[in-house]
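Sequence, structure tokens reproduced for absentees:
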Amino acid sequence: MKNHLSFREVTLTFDSNFIVFTGPSGAGKSILMEAMLALFGLKECDAAHVEATLDAKLDLSAYGIEEDDPNIFRLTKGKAARFFINNQQISRKNIREISKNFIHYLSLREMDEFENENLLQLLDAVASKKMPEHTELLQAFHESYHRFKEVEKALTQLREEEQKIEELKEFTAFEIEKIEKISPSPDEYEKLMEQKKALSKKEKIEASIEAASQIFQITPKVSEALQLLEEESTFFDDTITRLEAIFESAHEKLSELEEIDIETLLDRIEQLSALKRKHGSIEAALEYLDEKRKELARYENLSFEKEELEKRYEELHETVRQYAQQLTRNRTEAIKTLQARVEHYLNLLYLEKITFTLAQKPLGEQGSDLVEVHLKKTDLKKISAGEMNRLRLAMLAAENEFVRSRGGVLILDEIDANVSGKESTSIATVLRTLSQNYQIFAISHQPQLSSEADMHFLVYKENGESRVEALDTEGRIKELSRMISAEEITEEAISFAKSLLARKA
């Protein structure tokens, strides 16, 4: 670690699992622990650089990170914190996701393990260890519950629609009627516009044809003149014949226009224009009509659909309820085992009886069980900080047997605060058991726990700068003596410190 508050630079190497940090108040123990937690995205810190190596397989490929041996975690901070694993940058969110699988952090201010969700997960782990079929039961319950919630959501949506169904049906039917009443065809508008254009020119065409038809009266004279001139008259005769045909065809078309009611035509064009303005085109209006017909059909079939969903809902609800009842039965058996194991560790920690009970709550994604925990018949919110620390440690030790047997890294902040020397010794005993699976980092305030550690680091200040020193046997005796008798070290304190270390040996 570099440049973090009172620390300039610290390099630590660990060759054992049970590690303790001690030192005078204000020396920087919590700052050091804060940096360690920050490296894994669990805390904020202002260190310019924090780096650690982990000898563990972490399944990093799921996060697009290439695994290495060892894996190197690094945090650098300039304007913002940046996280790296094996020199590959990763988001803080993802590094937290990765680290939660192997970092377990106990602090005075967090009680996540006593949340019902976590207690049920622990109970299920105990049940699965005792009854392998419990794992299959959990999977079957979760799958059925997921389907049940999907059907419940669909049914709720359907019932909400049902309240508006009459209004929706009326509106949809009205929309359909508006278009069906007009009954447009795709190319009708264009044809009508052509007719309107032809009608607008009808009188001019008729007058023009009538005036031009006078040419037929002088046709004989033209033919006679061509004969006298001894010119071929075929071209003229063909032209006159072609002209007569054109005029005849025009008369027929104009006669057809006579049958058209101009008012009816204009009304029809206006109806189609209104559809075009609303929908963009006649084709779009016809597509909208088709959608509304389908929508109306669905509304009319809503009662049948609702009946089928309600039947499916009841079937799934009964299936989920039966699975939940079986979960409760298995958990009721498992809670006895859990209570026995937690009590085992509580006895070591000089705490009285703990009681786990299962109460019922509304069916949810973990079943219908509510785990209630009391220590000495007292609500956990009312027990002392020292009792809470030891209870949490007992829970962690029991959890280690059923869930976290693969271990990881355990970081403890003031785990032996507010306890007696005897209780501190008991905490150390449990931590030594846990250290078989965990690498443990603990800040200690008591010589009893500190003497039990495999490695002992002293955090102190020199000229305003925090330093960390690994203690040898003599150094441990001196530090333990300071913790026993404060700054003025007595012979009695030295003797007691030696006895503590001798007992560990």
Notes: The chain has a mean pLDDT of 88. The first strand starts at residue 2 and ends at 4. The chain is about 60% helix and 15% strand. Residues 217 and 286 are 55 Å apart (CA to CA).
